[in-house]
Prior knowledge:
31% of the residues lie in helices and 28% in strands. By secondary structure, the chain is of the alpha+beta class. A hairpin with a 2-residue loop joins strand 1 and strand 2 (15-24). The longest helix has 10 residues, at 68-77.
Amino acid sequence: MAVKIRLTRTGRHEKPFYRVVAADSRYTRDGRFVEQLGYYDPAKGVESAVLDEEATLKWLKNGAQYSGTVKTILTSKGLIAKVKGPAPKEEKKPAKKPAAKKEAKKEEK
């Protein structure tokens, strides 16, 4: 069973409200789910989303995939960093020198 962490829409017409759920990927968007992990109100923003961190981390450690919007929520709450650890520091690449052909053309002029 492939589990996805995604949003299930509830709420009134033109006033969406979403539940964050762990569901089998074969189920429909608003269909059955395995566990409810929290909720999200897009009118209030990503910062106002409420998640059960313990349950969410359990699903992420067991290999559950997440949707794009849920990734934004998890990142803002710092849960992806807890699962993957801190991001490695990127090494700066040295600046490239101009190609020898370009220098030769400039000298000819």
